[in-house]
Write a structure and sequence with these properties.
Shape: elongated
Strand content: 15-25%
Number of domains: 3
Keywords: Metal-binding, Zinc, Zinc-finger
GO molecular function, one term: ubiquitin protein ligase activity
Protein name: RING finger and CHY zinc finger domain-containing protein 1
Domain CTCHY-type: 194-257
Domain RING-type: 258-299
Order of helices and strands: HHHHEEEHEEEEEEEEEEHHHEEE
Distance between the termini: 42 Å
Length: 379
């Protein structure tokens, strides 16, 4: 499971830079404020403004190389305007009431101008429902900076130019009383339970009525009931109890991207299907794909046993061929058993003489081998 929608924009790096400039020189501080006012009057837009901000960060003498790289990365990942905006173009800002705080600590109150809600009024983004916002460790390294909040990991990854480390999250903000605190199941201030399901390992919250469990072998929260799934150590994935005895093990089968939508499968929140050949893809992608093909998109093996269907198909088409093609033989290679054989010609789906599969393809005759059903394995 993973988590979603930007709650705040972070100009903490810029503010930290301006404070450093102020300490070095009063005149440079005035210039920094002038530049800031100029940017605000122009609504923080334009590529030139972004370049100015990057140059200021590069010239800073009081920021570490790591802090500079992080600040520049945030600017690069922003849209055309320097303030992040939602689809309805409304700014979402977070303000720390105690601006003199030297670090993000428990008990600090934050003021959120707008909190994402579902149509039924519950707090949540397009991915999950929960009563707290996450404080990503990767985006909150700067001291004295306005905290960056996201409803979930997925929302963070969609807006930022990097992937959020779910395990590194240490703080959350209660959306009811706006109290920042350590990750936990309940708010330390108003004692409200943040979600029906909580995982302290993944820092994951979900207030919907869903079956979710944490797999210690995957080290992830998975959708479903734990008793209905079994972890395969070789595949490195959780597989349904029904499919487990007959599934084909493939080492790291989920350590790959879906061949249809290219999303990384191991951490995907979508249901995944493991084919008979051992390759994996999203269930929805699979349902759309088999409308046009019955073979694995990676290895071309049949995704199911289609022999009964093709037996009827061949019976229907056997007598439809003209006399000059009725007795023609074709040399084919089978995608299922990986062997070659001579088989009667058909306009498509010619039968393998070894395994009776119709998942074959015509090939040129190999003169080094006799064109017989015992020709051997495909090379």
């Amino acid at each position: 499971m993973s988590s979603g929608a930007l709650l705040s924009s972070d100009e903490g790096s810029q503010r930290s830079l301006e404070r450093c400039d102020s300490e070095r020189s009063g005149s440079s501080s005035t210039q920094g404020r002038d530049r800031k006012r100029g940017r605000e009057s122009a609504n923080d837009s334009g590529q030139g403004d972004r370049l100015v901000r990057i140059q200021e960060i590069a010239r800073s003498a009081c920021m570490s190389p790591k802090s500079k790289a992080k600040a520049m990365q945030r600017i690069f990942s922003e849209p055309a305007t320097s303030k992040r905006r939602t689809g309805d173009d409304e700014e979402l800002e977070v303000v720390v009431e105690n601006s003199e705080a030297s670090q993000i600590a428990d008990g600090i109150k934050v003021s959120i101008s707008k909190i994402p809600k579902k149509d039924d009024g519950r707090f949540g983004c397009k991915h999950y429902v929960r009563k707290c916002a996450l404080v990503p460790a990767c985006c909150n390294e700067e001291e004295n900076a306005t905290p960056v909040l996201y409803m979930c990991r997925l929302c963070h990854d969609e807006k930022e130019g990097h992937t959020m480390d779910r395990y590194a999250t240490k703080k959350v903000v209660c959306l009811l009383c706006s109290t920042m605190q350590d990750v936990g199941e309940k708010c330390v201030n108003c004692e409200e339970t943040f979600a029906k399901y909580f995982c302290g390992v993944c820092k994951f919250y979900e207030d919907e009525d869903k079956n979710i469990y944490h797999c210690s072998d995957c080290n992830l929260c998975r959708l479903g009931r734990q008793e209905d799934n079994q972890h395969c150590n070789r595949c490195g994935a959780c597989i349904s109890v029904e499919s487990f005895p007959k599934h084909k093990c493939r080492e790291g089968s989920l350590d790959a991207h879906c061949p249809i939508c290219t999303e990384y499968l191991f951490t995907s929140v979508e249901k995944v299907v493991i084919l008979r050949c051992g390759h994996s893809l999203h269930h929805k992608c699979f349902q759309d794909y088999i409308k046009g093909d019955f073979r694995c998109p990676l290895c071309l093996k049949s995704v199911a046993d289609f022999k009964p269907f093709f037996a009827k198909w061949e019976e229907m088409h056997r007598e439809a061929l003209p006399p000059d093609l009725a007795n023609r033989m074709v040399y084919v290679a089978c995608n299922d058993c990986q062997r070659k054989s001579n088989t009667p010609f058909r306009t498509q789906f010619m039968r393998c003489m070894h395994c009776s599969s119709h998942n074959t393809r015509p090939i040129g005759r190999d003169e080094a081998e006799p064109a017989t059903a015992e020709a051997g394995t495909l090379r």
